[in-house]
Automatic annotation (TrEMBL):
The keyword Nucleotide-binding applies. Signal peptide: none annotated. It catalyses: 5-amino-1-(5-phospho-D-ribosyl)imidazole-4-carboxylate + L-aspartate + ATP = (2S)-2-[5-amino-1-(5-phospho-beta-D-ribosyl)imidazole-4-carboxamido]succinate + ADP + phosphate + 2 H(+). The keyword Signal does not apply. HAMAP family: SAICAR_synth. Residues 6-235 form the SAICAR synthetase/ADE2 N-terminal domain. Keywords: ATP-binding, Ligase, Nucleotide-binding, Purine biosynthesis. InterPro entries: SAICAR_synt/ADE2_N (IPR028923), SAICAR_synt_PurC (IPR033934), SAICAR_synth (IPR001636), SAICAR_synthetase (IPR050089), SAICAR_synthetase_CS (IPR018236). This is Phosphoribosylaminoimidazole-succinocarboxamide synthase.
Length: 251
């Protein structure tokens, strides 16, 4: 069998050429990294859980008319997605203060924000993904004004959807990061939600106890990361019950 072509290997995923033009296979690794890859580990079962969880969120978004790159899950670790040109920005949406916002502005973690706050970071690992303003984005041509309007509207719709889905299972969506892709349809371009949506890219806190169920468990050495992600998957009904304790066995 011909070996498929690897297009890109990132910190948590590998992208392979897809079976049809315009498609890509996204493979979820077990690797966990934080602080721009200064902290690294392999967490058994993380890739399987994130593949399932990202499928769950992207499918829901597609169903409510928020376009995403997700086509279908292929197996335990892989999903078929639309090939798109990634806008070189990380779009961060915050509902409660945490992480870098708390540090930068001296606001206690967990403080509810008066309204969702959107931030943009320029995607560049060598620079540590610096925070940028819309002025930078326009001046350097990373996205047009129309793109920025569309990105804001997509980000707020994802926030409402994700906040609601999480609230229903007793979890607070503190903040999250998404990436946006450009697809071309004839003479038109469209922006869609790309990359992944998983506990790697969200802050998720139990509403009752405040327990962290996201990558901060790894960043801050708070326990077993796969257990935290399994708990999110269990609450959402994403894992078959018998496999809850053994995420690596799910198909
Ligand atoms: N985030 C991410 N990838 C990044 C940076 C941030 O997925 O490269 C997510 C992070 O998990 C959190 C949100 O974006 O849910 C806001 O992160 P923050 O700016 O507070 O950065 P951090 O404290 O993680 O450095």
């Amino acid at each position: 069998m011909a070996r498929r072509k690897k297009i890109y290997e990132g910190k948590a995923k590998i992208l392979y050429e897809g079976p049809e033009p315009g498609t890509i296979v996204q493979y979820f690794k077990d690797d966990a990294t934080a602080f721009n890859a200064e902290k690294k580990d392999v967490i058994d079962g993380k890739g399987v859980l994130n593949n399932r969880l990202s499928e769950y969120f992207m499918t829901g978004l597609n169903q409510i008319g928020v376009p995403t790159h997700f086509i279908r899950r292929l197996n335990m670790r892989e999903q078929l997605v639309r090939n798109c040109e990634i806008v070189p920005l990380e779009i961060i949406v915050r509902n409660y203060a945490a992480g870098s916002l708390s540090k930068r502005l001296g606001i206690a973690e967990g403080t509810q924000l008066p309204r969702p706050i959107i931030e943009y970071c320029y995607k560049d690992d060598a620079l540590g993904d610096p925070l940028v303003s819309e002025e930078h984005i326009a001046a350097f041509g990373w996205a047009s004004q129309q793109d920025m309007d569309d990105i804001l509207s997509l980000a707020l719709r994802v926030n409402d959807f994700m906040s609601g889905v999480m609230l229903a299972v007793g979890i607070r969506l503190v903040d999250f990061k998404i990436e946006i892709g450009r697809v071309f349809e004839g003479d038109f371009q469209r922006l869609i939600v790309a990359d992944e949506i998983s506990p790697d890219s969200c802050r998720l806190w139990d509403i009752e106890t405040g327990q962290k169920l996201d990558k901060d468990v790894f960043r801050r050495d708070l326990g077993n990361l796969a257990d935290a992600y399994s708990e999110v998957a269990r609450r959402l009904g994403v894992l078959p019950k018998s496999n809850v304790a053994k995420p690596t066995l799910i198909n």
